[in-house]
Amino acid sequence: MKLKSFQILISGRVQGVGFRHYTTLIAEKHKLNGWVRNLLDGRVEVVINCSAQVLESVLCEIRQGPSCSKVEQIESIELHTLINNLNCFQILPTSPTHWEDHSHG
Predict the structure, then answer these.
(1) Orientation of helix 19-29 relative to helix 52-64, angle to 10°
(2) Per-residue pLDDT averaged across 3-29, rounded?
(3) Among 20, 33, 37, 43, the one annotated catalytic
(4) In the annotation, is 49 catalytic?
(5) Can you spell out the DSSP letters for 32-66?
(6) Of 33, 37, 38, 49, catalytic
(7) So what's the architecture of 4-91 in CATH?
(8) pLDDT at 36
(9) Domain residue spans in the chain?
(10) Quick check: helix, strand or coil at residue 60?
(11) What pLDDT does residue 101 have?
């Protein structure tokens, strides 16, 4: 299975409801490397390295969300290059903007 990097942007009631911790548990279950963080616009951003098959499972689990959350939209973007420096899964500080893939030219 070929590893790829994916960015997932989750909209809805996804902040202040344990969503980052919930996502961390999903990542640990699938042994994924990457990060999760809140964005100032109210979304949650996830960046992970995984196969396309694993991504489908992860998206299904994210869609469920923790009990107090309400996922309204999930946007999944395959990044142009594999992010090689991901060696664990972590919760990052809130960011004003989402991560951008500047590798394409």
Answers:
(1) 150
(2) 97
(3) 20
(4) no
(5) -EEEEEEBTTS-EEEEEEE-HHHHHHHHHHHHH--
(6) 38
(7) 2-Layer Sandwich (3.30)
(8) 98
(9) 4-91
(10) helix
(11) 63
